[in-house]
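hey
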């Protein structure tokens, strides 16, 4: 019990609209199945939908000591030093491919002091305020600039 690390785990949020967007992109691929055999097309589209949900629901951010680990289910994808984080900003980019570790429109952009592989990375923890507090406990020098969209832009905040 003495050697056990204290960890905090935060599940990633994912956007309802992003799932709909991906399914809308994939729908033309399934039209031939719907024309010939409607049940076969429904099974394939349902399987793709379940697969997307499984991938997205498995993204977790783990804070352990002075490290932030990103995991998809049980597979660790990367680890970051919390002391290397310079700032956190709100981001609404959809396709920032190399640094996107989320399935949401509403993200936090973590920028680093010393460039590792990338100069920043995107995360979207479900309990965002608690996540920021935990990071600030380890590194109180993190500059936080968080804003939420106003007006019609709030539709991008619809996450589950």
């Amino acid at each position: 019990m003495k050697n056990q690390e204290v960890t905090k785990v935060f599940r990633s949020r994912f956007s309802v609209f992003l799932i709909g967007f991906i399914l809308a992109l994939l729908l033309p691929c399934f039209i031939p199945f719907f024309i010939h055999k409607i049940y076969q097309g429904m099974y394939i589209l349902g399987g793709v939908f379940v697969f997307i949900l499984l991938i997205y629901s498995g993204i977790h951010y783990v804070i352990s000591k002075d490290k932030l680990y990103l995991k998809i289910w049980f597979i660790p994808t990367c680890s970051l030093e919390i002391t290397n984080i310079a700032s956190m900003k709100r981001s609404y980019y959809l396709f920032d491919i190399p640094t996107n570790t989320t399935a949401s429109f509403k993200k936090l952009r973590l920028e680093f002091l010393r460039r590792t592989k990338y100069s920043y990375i995107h995360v979207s923890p479900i309990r965002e305020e608690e996540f920021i507090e935990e990071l600030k406990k380890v590194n109180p020098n993190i500059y936080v600039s968080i804003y939420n969209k106003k007006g019609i832009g709030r539709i991008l905040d619809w996450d589950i």
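The domain at 1-160 is CATH 2.30.29 (PH-domain like). The chain has a mean pLDDT of 78.
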